[in-house]
Amino acid sequence: MIKIEQFKQRIEEELLPYIVLSSLNQNDPIVVKNNTKDWQLVGSGNYASVFSHPSEKEIVVKVYGREVEAIKDEIRVYEALGNHPAYSELYGYGENYLILKRITGITLYDAVIKGVAISPKVLMDIEKAIDYAKKVGLNPFDVHGKNIVMQNEKGIIVDVSDFYKSGVCKKWEDLQTAYKWFYQPFLLKNHPRIPVWMLNLVRKGYRVARGIVPINKRK
């Protein structure tokens, strides 16, 4: 097992001083300037970027680029979730970063683009994961195609940073509806590749329709 304190020292000496995370728009992913020697960028979301090091292939480091105070809420979320097969696991943290179990696979968003069939079992796994989160006192928020990974036909939620929020989020419910009435009957058996521009157009149209992004602020 990785020695967390030693790895934290490596993060703070070899990673953090050599990366610049900037947020050009709160609805777009963080932009990363990576000047490290060995650290690799895994991906970016609207609040943070994720990095890996070749010496530790089973873990990733999530570094907050904005609204750093929210990291305390995400830590509490992971502590509530504990060890569950449909979620990552928190190994340690610092002032602006989390050390997490690495989840490999393909997001549902990328699966649609690449023409990779999404099994109904994946959605069943996510539904069970959401029920579990509710049982431990969380509010599964912002569960959508980019935050769900398919790993050997198993569904995993890879971003739980908003599970502390109150209110109702319809994204998962809407994804299920789209899967049932459009994806399953028309795409599942003979899955074509869907152009990125087309999927992004659908995504942005959905955000406007749901009032997530005002029409006059669309990008």
From TrEMBL:
InterPro entries: Kinase-like_dom_sf, Meiotic_Drive_Suppr_Kinase, Prot_kinase_dom. SUPFAM superfamilies: Protein kinase-like (PK-like). GO terms for molecular function: ATP binding; protein kinase activity. This is Protein kinase domain-containing protein. Residues 36-219 form the Protein kinase domain.
